[in-house]
Amino acid sequence: MQVRYDVLMDNDLIKDLVDVAKDSALLNGVLMRTKETPNSSEVVTYAPFTLFPSPVPEATFHQALAVQTHYNRLVDKISQDSSFLEEALASTIKVDDFTGRLFNIYRHVLQEGKTQSIVLGLNRSDYMLDQNEDGSASLKQIEINTIAASFGGLASHTPNVHRHILKVAGRLEDSKRILDNNPSAGLAKGLSKAWDLYGSERAVVLYLVEELQRNIFDHRYVENELWKRNIPVIRRQFEDVAKTGFLDQDKRLFVDGREVAIVYFRNGYMPQNYTEQNWEARLMMERSMAVKCPDISTHLAGTKKVQQELARPGVLERFFPGEPDVVDKIRATFAGLYTLDMGPEGDKTVAMALAKPDKFVLKPQREGGGNNLYGAEICQVLEGVKQSTERMAYILMDKVQPRPVHNYLLRLGTPLKLSTCLSELGVFGAYVRHGQDMVLNECAGHLLRTKSDEHSDGGVAAGVAVLDNPLLV
Ligand code: ADP
Ligand code: MG
């Protein structure tokens, strides 16, 4: 059953509703800074969002939430398995400099010996719903973000916006079905648990942020949850850490004279985030006693190459011996993933992709949106690299084909039009391990993002997707 709000309303009604919607977003704090003034809050706008919530099958939604604590454990287990990480990333680091440099830091820390036994993971596992021939949908993971997973803050405030819009649109019953969502609290719970364990009242949570801070309000929601608990937060850039940071003799990290309990990376996942100085700063933070969210091994556990290796037969079993039900639940969310390493298996992947490029997505080892290749581009790129080790910088993945729905995407400066849209469901996870003990392992809420089907790639920050809410059907 799909509600077609757009056909229930004429254009004038939609226009009125759009005005109501934008005001509601502002009143509810669904905010973003503008492109023109990304580092000032003097003039701000609404964060892009859909006029209407999008349908998501109830069973699939609950499946995604239920598997999250298993994914948390999986990421954590991978991060502790150095031989797995070595093997899984061996080919990638030969040809991908960025992953190679991250891996060098990992090796350095491993050799030096771990200093901090508190591990904090805040991640977001993203899914699309693959449409089956019988009309049902299967939950398929797109990727898991183990660093800088965003929009938990804003997603805590979008439900009230859609509730209000639906009421004004005369859809009171649907309005009541918009789910509560509070990833801000869930993420803050993880941060606060790790801060408690660190055990110093004066020590701060350091948000490691980008130079351009358009999405600051998303951060602030989680930040403010921490301040409510009297946990001090500072926001700094790599450059600040490089200039003022040092480790004392016990390897405690100090930045701007403040002891740092937790480094929360909201930056540092793209090559362009790093100068030589920033690489030095990253290494210093990784070597320190501060809790890193994520630490370098957890960062690497979230790479697309690791995702592909996990899909090999027997690999999940290695991480969950004696827990076949957990293995089944995780594996049920995997789309087809294929290696492009040199050898017969990789050759087969190349042939398969070239034969039916529209069935696949070619992914380089990158994060942040806009890097993947589709259709004819797959052929172009693969024809160029198929004979060389360069191809090992990519993985191939089945293209997930969700059922399109109609909606209006509201974004500053974009004319109003009805779009054919695809949605991506994200689920936030938070966990804290102290030594061998998982002391917190939770699903921390959800995020629905929706984009026009004209775009095959790109998230909210990339200006493609917008914030949404699931309406369970
Ligand atoms: P990034 O790290 O850049 O966010 P993703 O793997 O999340 O990389 O891919 C970016 C976007 O590309 C996703 O948000 C989704 O819209 C699209 N995408 C990625 N993988 C697939 C896939 N297997 N099938 C369909 N679309 C995909
Ligand atoms: Mg993504």
TrEMBL record:
One of its GO terms (molecular function) is magnesium ion binding. InterPro entries: Glutathione_synthase, Glutathione_synthase_a-hlx, Glutathione_synthase_C_euk, Glutathione_synthase_N_euk, GSH-S_sub-bd_sf, GSH_synth_subst-bd, PreATP-grasp_dom_sf. It is an enzyme of class 6 (ligase). Pathway: Sulfur metabolism; glutathione biosynthesis; glutathione from L-cysteine and L-glutamate: step 2/2. One of its GO terms (cellular component) is cytosol. The keyword Nucleotide-binding applies. It comes from the Eukaryota. Gene3D superfamilies: 3.30.1490.50, 3.30.1490.80, ATP-grasp fold, B domain (3.30.470.20), Glutathione synthase, substrate-binding domain superfamily, eukaryotic (3.40.50.1760), Glutathione Synthetase, Chain A, domain 3 (1.10.1080.10). Its cofactor is Mg(2+). It catalyses: gamma-L-glutamyl-(2S)-2-aminobutanoate + glycine + ATP = ophthalmate + ADP + phosphate + H(+); gamma-L-glutamyl-L-cysteine + glycine + ATP = glutathione + ADP + phosphate + H(+). The keyword Nucleotide-binding applies. Keywords: ATP-binding, Glutathione biosynthesis, Ligase, Magnesium, Metal-binding, Nucleotide-binding. Its EC number is 6.3.2.3. Mg(2+) binds at residues 143, 145, 367. Substrate binds at residues 124, 147-150, 213-215, 266-269, 449, 460-461. Pfam families: GSH_synth_ATP, GSH_synthase. Residues 203-301 form the Glutathione synthase substrate-binding domain. Binds 1 Mg(2+) ion per subunit. ATP binds at residues 143, 304, 363-372, 374, 424, 451, 457. Belongs to the eukaryotic GSH synthase family. Catalyzes the production of glutathione from gamma-glutamylcysteine and glycine in an ATP-dependent manner. Glutathione (gamma-glutamylcysteinylglycine, GSH) is the most abundant intracellular thiol in living aerobic cells and is required for numerous processes including the protection of cells against oxidative damage, amino acid transport, the detoxification of foreign compounds, the maintenance of protein sulfhydryl groups in a reduced state and acts as a cofactor for a number of enzymes. Participates in ophthalmate biosynthesis in hepatocytes. PANTHER family: GLUTATHIONE SYNTHETASE. This is Glutathione synthetase. It comes from Salmo trutta. The lineage of its organism: Eukaryota, Metazoa, Chordata, Craniata, Vertebrata.
